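Students often ask why we bother predicting the structure of a whole assembly rather than each chain alone. The short answer is interfaces. A chain on its own may look different once its partners are present, and contacts between molecules only exist in the joint model. In this exercise we take two input lines together and write out one structure for the complete complex. Read the inputs first and try to guess which parts will touch.
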Amino acid sequence: MNDAKTFDFELVSPEAKLMSEPAWQVQVPAEEGAMGVRAGHSPIVATVKPGIVEIWKSEGDKPQKIFIAGGFADITADNLTVLAEEAVNIADLNAADLDKDIQNLTDELSLAQDDMAKARLEKQISFAEIKKAALAA
Amino acid sequence: MPSLKEFRDRIASVKSTKKITSAMKMVAASKLKKAQEQAESSQPYATAMAGMLARVAGGVVVHANSPKLLIGTGKDDVHLLVVVTSDRGLCGGFNGNLIRKVRQDIRALQAEGKTVKLVTVGRKARDLLKGEHKDKIVTSYTGIGASGRVRFSEVNEITETVLGLFDKGEFDICTLVYNEFRSVLVQKPTGQQLIPFKMQEPEEANDNAKGEVEETANVPYDFEPEEEAILGQLLPRNLGVQMFRALLDSAAGEQAARMTAMDGATRNAGDRINALTLQYNRARQAYITKELIEIISGAEAV
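Now the answer. The structure tokens for the assembled complex follow.
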């Protein structure tokens, strides 16, 4: 494997193609543990859990972090496509807003009646906490 | 014979109608463009999803414990129709044609002794179906895409409801009935089976996906977790994507249908104005002639 080589990284959501650019390494929070992908990776289809995708444009760069709310990754030797239903660039967030969100969601959760609403709110809180952790790191 | 004033009033009224219809036509045209752009930008995800499904499903051996979304419940007694229409009217036969198809489908299914349940999306579907088929409607959604864009999260709500019903065993087969966007002039009411999952025949629009699949079909793929588990997660997502695509199609179709309908209405209003103007001029001429005759015969009498 050639370390200097880049591959095509694509991040698509149902509403739009969010990113399409060459990357040196991408770390994907796959269901069975985080997966670091570089050019020449063996073909694999994996499910992705909610978490942070980290993208290194070139070696030694600071990675760009993007939160995704779960999805799928389709990996071939020179291509990585991540399908995500929701994606947020961590750089666009700030800690105060997230804290407020978590607070609001927790309040709503204490008021929620049916199980479906509760499950949904709990999911949103966990998403917000992942974002917060990524921002702090 | 109406008086001259009545003619003038009628011409003025048709003229203002024409202004409204031509404005609506232009608004619909710009909304159509937006809707088409949105449909286009959702294409990569759908294509990638289709490619992945083809890869995963190709490696799966179907057995009794396969995901129910793939193999179905083994029965086909209860059909759920998800009917997608617009919220607003004034778009020609867009909703009417679709509802007619739905009514036919319901009758055909009932003739076979099946039970039919309905989920309606859009105000028109609810209003037009609640007369005859009120007892069959499970839930109704309105106001989707009211913000000018159809959001995936809005559509997800419908998908989750449908999946919830399926898990509870409320139906065996789910069909999505919507207006497929063929072109600006043609929207075709279409039924698409969502549950159990049917591998779609690659259409022209999916040519890229097809090529990609064929290209990579020979490369051995790894799956993590194994195919079956991925499939179990992919299928519900795919349902959401199909639903989203249908709603985008329907949204674009609605605007296209409205544009066509308003174009026709504007033209008709123009014809009407011409006809009325002609009548008005004739009446005016007759009135003038009458007055002249009266003056002349008055003068002769003296």
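Check your guess against this: The longest helix of chain A spans residues 115-136.
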